[in-house]
Amino acid sequence: MGVKIFKTLDEQLEILRDKGLVIDDEEYAKKIILRENYFFLMGYRHLFLNPDNDRCFLPNTNFRELYSLFYFDRQLRNIMFKNILIIENNTKSIFSYILSQKYGYREADYLRPSNYNQSPDKVKQVNDLLKKMKRQIRVNGAQHEATKHYINKYGYIPLWIVVKVLSFGITSELYTIMKPQDQREIAKEYDVEAEHLLTFLPILSNYRNLCAHEDILFEHRTQKEIPDNVYHASLNIPVINGEYIYGKGDLFSVVLIFKYLLSKDDFRLFINEIAYEIDRLGGRLNVISIDMVLDRMGFPKNYKVLLDID
Description:
Shape: globular
Mean pLDDT: 94
Strand content: under 5%
Number of helices: 15
């Protein structure tokens, strides 16, 4: 088994030059590599690799162009993350309101298994998830001012406060164990089918974690795919072997989820911010085209038409 040894910044630049990367400002490149990490930066090399020799960059690939894609992905993560947080907050608020209204606001009420789907195939999941919720309340409840206030003053934490300490992963799973009628009531608030929301929430949770940990976003794919919908057809997204090539389990599928779950104003702001970053990246690319990046993102070229579709 080979051993990876420490390389100085000069040695790292030499490796990149040996692979054909153009470095016209060594001090700039060293500063970027030191701050951003050689390994993380190289995660963006794939679009720039020579198809005839994938150990080398395409002719004339410049370090600045590679870093531009890295930086674009960071800006993309920031934009996606803040909008996922909006949806996370909205869903937590809606969940807590509907469940508290129906079943009560004390832990003994909203954590009662009988308030959730009791079909035989769901019982174990219900019990396991409620245990996870109790654990998060116990571990994280004392770390937030609001939850500490309710514990100290009232001796319990209502669900609309508890959601503050629940992860989005647990919140999205909570939806899967709700009674069908509760799922439908919540989905109605977004004007979507419950079956769609069951798919949307875990995908958003997956992307939220990816954004929070600064993983590569623009070409990420999920195991789950969103259902075909009116937006796929309205954008005339091509179909191969009966499947839309964009907007299923790629980043554009998250954009379509946003179209359903964000307010019109928030969605318009989101598209405008994304379009700005795409245009800015396009002006910094020379060896590859912005269309290649959009294809990796799963974005059709006419993605902005979404703003005109009700």
